[in-house]
Amino acid sequence: MEPIEVTAHFDEHGMITPLHFTWKGGHFRIESTGRRWSDEAGQHMLVMLSSGQIYELVFNGAVSTWYIARLGPERPVI
To answer: What is the pTM of this model?
Structure first.
């Protein structure tokens, strides 16, 4: 996982909605969010851009850091 900058909305119930992220010099607007789950790394979220690209973002609340993770061997994050 690689740390990234994310702008997100946190509602009054603690629900996180990522809005856009900056990675490798690019600024990416998030069109929609999908599946979410939590594990020892943090809160994982699948997000989709308007181009249809899907990314996995991870928020680690213990260190207040966002990460981008690979989706798997057949769909690397590019």
So the answer is: 0.84
